[in-house]
Amino acid sequence: MVGQEPVTTTLQHVVDTGSPAHAYLFSGPRGTGKTSTGRILAKALNCRPGPNGLPDPECEASYDEGRALDLIELDAASNRGIDEIRDLRENAGYSPALGPYKVYLIDEAHMLTDAAFNALLKTLEEPPPHVIFILATTEPHRIPATISSRCQRFDFRRHTIENIIARLELVGGRENVTAEDGAYELIARQATGSLRDAENLLDQLIAYHGSQLTVENVRAGLGLVVDARTEAVANAAIHRDLGAGLNALVAARDDGVSMRPFMREVVGVLRSALLLKAGAGDQLGLADGEAEALTQMTSDVRATEIVAALTAFGDLDFSGDAYDSLPAEIAFAGLCTGIGASAPSGYQPPAAPQRGPAQQRPNQAQQPNR
After folding, report:
1. How far apart are CA 249 and CA 271, in angstroms?
2. pLDDT for 201-229, tens place per residue?
3. Model confidence pTM above 0.85
4. Strand, coil or helix: what is 304?
5. Selection from 262, 243, 244 nearest residue 253 by Cα
6. 3-state class of 75 per DSSP?
7. Could you give the domains of the chain?
């Protein structure tokens, strides 16, 4: 396992003492190792050391290759009905095939129907002594309280950049990949804490670029924009310079730049600037020159100005045309003029002019007194 030290320490104690609970709830973002931990726990509990102090290699191989009879995996996203849970309850009564425990690993457990949860509850209330349930979910709030209260809960955190880079270096070493300094860090940051996403991105880049990964071809493969105009747009946004911002957006569009990744980079610049402004930029991993430039950019503005810009650009919709700059232009204009969701506090739009009697529309003419 990579990271998740509080979880691994506790589960290691469970294995050492040989006293597992009958049900566990693993919750956390996708790609943080919930199902993998469930498989590892099942293997550790069922492949106990023999008289020689070593686990049975055939037992461990069966779990590593996904053919263990005492580990039953159920994807609740596609097997979410009461019939599947009834079958599970019936089979749970049978003894394990080889090991001391029969482990049921239910992935995306929050997708089960209410009827399925009720059927599962009956088993959790009086579980057979040889059965262990592991429920993995990205949405623990959707698990009924009657279920979660009968489980030991473990919360999985997003992986740190350092942990993901270490994993990528290990995988890359197995594949004989030569990576330039900073290449793995770009992949790790794009994965946003998901180890699985990081490995998938690495596989895609290897398939496209081969075993030589540079910062340049990783940026190209991930669709990241290298354009100085992203900083120009960010600078214009926090200083409310409408002309400079629109000029940069239109110029980028005319050069054929895809606006979706372009604006994603703008948001990244604004986020880094905000963290530096708040004194929380130590974890950004910026070079000294980058940090100094961003600090200078925001030296004469308040944090609220940066937050307003982030709010304006945070939910841009480019679903119609990724190369169309109009959504970004509208958001930028709204930010600078104070019209829209990003209007600064205290802004009052000008009052509409009052119409005189002679300016009324024909259908709004005054009715004669009766």
Report:
1. 19
2. 999 999 988 889 988 888 888 877 667 78
3. no
4. helix
5. 262
6. strand
7. 5-155 (3.40.50.300), 161-222 (1.10.8.60), 229-337 (1.20.272)
